[in-house]
Amino acid sequence: MKLKFRLVAGTLIWLAWTASQMPLPLEAAWARMLLLFAPLVIVPVGLDLAALHLPEEGRRAYFLPLIKNWQLPSAALLCLAYSLPQGMSAGLLAVPWLLETLLIAFFGFNRPYSDLCAPAHKPSKFIAFEKASCKKFRIKSNNLMKKEGRALPGLSISMGMVYLSVGGIWAVVDRMGIRPFMFSPEIVFLTVAHFHYAGFVLPIVAGLVILKIKNRWANMAVAGILSGVAWVAVGITASQFGGSREIESFAAWWLALSAVLLAFFQVKLALRKNGNPLVSMFWAVAAVSLTGSMALAGLYGMRHVFPVSGLDIAMMRALHGSANVFGFGLFALLGWWLEFSGLVE
């Protein structure tokens, strides 16, 4: 299925689900609405960006046609899963999306990173960076375990796809009503959302940014994001087991500051000369939204030290969640998609 068809169909399904629930911002249904926007709209765009440079034989080798064709039906079943009460039926309906995220993770883990520095299979701005810079990020091996490593842009994009599978696993756990480590239902759900947005969108956008901007600080922002996504989950788990709350606070600020640094470079790209005004506007909106949402995340992470009145989980879902989904995730990915696909000239 073509991306445009999947986007239109996914948007219509999402609007239908939202209309059937009529959620208010402080209700739990609002958070479910935000989450479902990812499999239906966000993931297809991110996946398309990750595969723009691959030749046709590379797409077939990593099951990309199957992944794209399975995305919409599995996302629609996940919507149905979140329309039912927690239990076996809802959990089974979430399994197809889990399988989809595992296929995406397989694609991300195995995609040929050296192709980031190779000619594209069709003319594309995706490969339009200098040869000297390309050599700097040249991949010496496609084996993740070898010391040579992978190019940081490619690694970041791939880690986004791998992190998404964690969100797929927790979606099944959430719909089954399982509570690992005695996590509250809210924490289980927020883990699903965390790995669909901070885990998937943020690393992909970070990888795309450092394809355009190459300096030490940009690389540090990406490294902070890749480590921070996992570190936040570790911090929450440590708090659940009675560990120091400072671990969670540190992790929240580590990820927040890394994301704000990335937003700075996104703004720098938006202000470039000869840039398309629409793409630049999308990037600027995304950067401002990311800065605001991550500032809230940092404040919430420090709630045990400096509590902010009214900034509870419900308010974070409404403010932080909405800004991440509609402000950052949507505008950032659409901006990059338009930039690389040549749809905007």
Descriptive account of the structure:
- The protein is an all-alpha fold and 345 residues long.
- The chain has one domain.
- The protein is built from 13 helices and no strands.
- The longest helix has 29 residues.
- The relative contact order is 0.11.
- About 11% of the residues have low confidence.
Instruction: Count up the helices.
Output: 13
CA-to-CA gap between the ends?
25 Å
Report the structural category.
Answer: mainly alpha
Q: Number of DSSP strands?
A: 0
As a whole number of angstroms, the C-alpha radius of gyration is 19 Å
* Oligomeric status: single chain
- Main sheet, how many strands, which sense, barrel? none
Shape: globular
Name its key features:
73% helix, mainly alpha, globular, 13 helices, 345 residues
Helices and strands, with pairings:
Blueprint: H1 3-21, H2 28-51, H3 56-61, H4 64-81, H5 88-110, H6 131-136, H7 152-176, H8 185-197, H9 201-212, H10 216-240, H11 245-270, H12 277-301, H13 313-341
